[in-house]
């Protein structure tokens, strides 16, 4: 189902992004443009993101990448 009509992002796209390492709305916005235009999808996108994160296996320290700086960095490990 489409979550973000402005950027044509589906719930499956968000689930794949989480599988690739996305863990926040910031990552979805940077990589897919979610909630970057009209913003009406933000609430539902957050629900889909949270559901996908809960279905993921626990993250170990070895797979965590912390990105700091200007915000233009990579969200995926």
UniProtKB/TrEMBL annotation:
Database matches in CDD domains: Fer2_BFD
Record flagged with keyword Ligase: no
Residues in BFD-like [2Fe-2S]-binding domain copies: 2-50
Short name of one Pfam family: Fer2_BFD
The keyword ATP-binding appears for this protein: no
Cofactor dependency: [2Fe-2S] cluster
Keyword list, A-Z: 2Fe-2S, Electron transport, Iron, Iron-sulfur, Metal-binding, Transport
GO MF: 2 iron, 2 sulfur cluster binding; metal ion binding
Protein family per UniProt: Belongs to the Bfd family.
Protein name: Bacterioferritin-associated ferredoxin
């Amino acid at each position: 189902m489409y979550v973000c009509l402005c950027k044509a992002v589906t719930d499956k796209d968000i689930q794949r992004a989480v599988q690739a390492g996305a863990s926040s709305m910031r990552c979805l916005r940077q990589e897919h443009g979610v909630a970057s235009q009209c913003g009406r999808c933000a609430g539902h996108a957050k629900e889909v993101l949270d559901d996908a994160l809960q279905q993921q296996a626990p993250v170990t320290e070895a797979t965590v990448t912390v990105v700091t700086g200007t915000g233009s960095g990579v969200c995926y490990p």
